[in-house]
Write a structure and sequence with these properties.
Oligomer: single chain
Helix content: 10-25%
CATH topology: Spore Coat Polysaccharide Biosynthesis Protein SpsA, Chain A
Largest sheet: 7 strands, mixed
Number of helices: 6
Structural class: alpha/beta
Order of helices and strands: EEEHEHEHEEHEEEEEHEEH
Radius of gyration: 17 Å
Distance between the termini: 27 Å
Number of domains: 1
Shape: globular
Length: about 240
């Protein structure tokens, strides 16, 4: 897909390798991305948004109950190709997972999406909205954020502050920050330069980008749902139905 400013997103990664501990007991027999919400598996909500944005290639990482997830993906009839980044031997967390998948990804920037969030678009397709605001000269990552008051199902204190130019800084200890990360971001392969080996969190990469003034955010104009526990499913379904 190409944004209005000419930025092309050639590939996306869906983060789907987690153990889903907070979603127990539903994840005792299935991986979290296959837990059904509003009539379909969680991961299909993400794949629907990626397909609507016109992205041609998707990589999905797998670890817990990987065979079931791979079988589900193999049965997909989509307008994009799907590749598997296999983490059966070692769960690499979010940062390590991106590093492992990088050889299978294409283009600059690349879309990274968590599989346990659901969002609806505002006036504009949210992924295209990110693409239109991408500036590779200034950014190593552009995070889609939502105001904490609008973060349905999210119980934290917020993640980031955002200055008028869109640059991000961390929530201060003991304080509240106005923006929550939605699990959707554009990244340049630069973000992964000299990354740690093995399993590590994306937070390490973000902190490095913050120090360089190259981590940016964009406010989401639609709805967003943190579907992290069994108790969050029914309210999410009710809100989507009302919408």
């Amino acid at each position: 897909m190409t944004g209005k400013a000419g930025v092309q997103i050639e590939s996306a990664m869906v983060m789907a390798a987690g153990l889903g501990k907070r979603m127990r007991p539903l994840t005792a027999t299935r991986p979290k991305p296959l837990v059904r919400v509003a009539g379909k598996p969680l991961i299909d909500h993400s794949l629907d948004r990626i397909e609507a944005a016109g992205i041609a290639h998707v990589v999905v990482n797998v670890h817990y109950l990987a065979d079931a997830l791979e079988a589900h993906l193999a049965a997909q009839k989509r307008r994009f190709s799907i590749a598997i980044s296999d983490e059966r031997d070692l769960l690499l967390e979010t940062g390590g997972g991106m590093v492992k998948a990088l050889p299978q990804l294409r283009g600059d920037p690349m879309l990274i999406v968590n599989s346990d969030n659901i969002w609806t678009d505002g006036p504009e397709d949210s992924i295209r909205h990110l693409a239109r605001h991408w500036d590779g000269d200034r950014m190593d990552a552009l995070l889609l954020l939502i105001r904490q008051a609008s973060a349905t199902g999210h119980g934290g204190r917020g993640d980031f502050h955002m200055d008028p130019a869109g640059r991000l800084s961390r929530r201060k200890p003991g304080r509240i920050a106005p923006f929550v990360y939605t699990g959707v971001q554009l990244i340049s392969p630069r973000l992964l330069d000299d990354a740690p080996a093995g399993a590590f969190s994306t937070n390490i990469l973000w902190d490095r980008a913050i120090a360089a003034g190259r981590l940016y955010g964009l406010s989401h104009m639609g709805q967003w749902f943190d579907v992290g526990t069994p108790a969050s499913i029914a309210p999410t379904e009710a809100a989507l139905t009302d919408g």
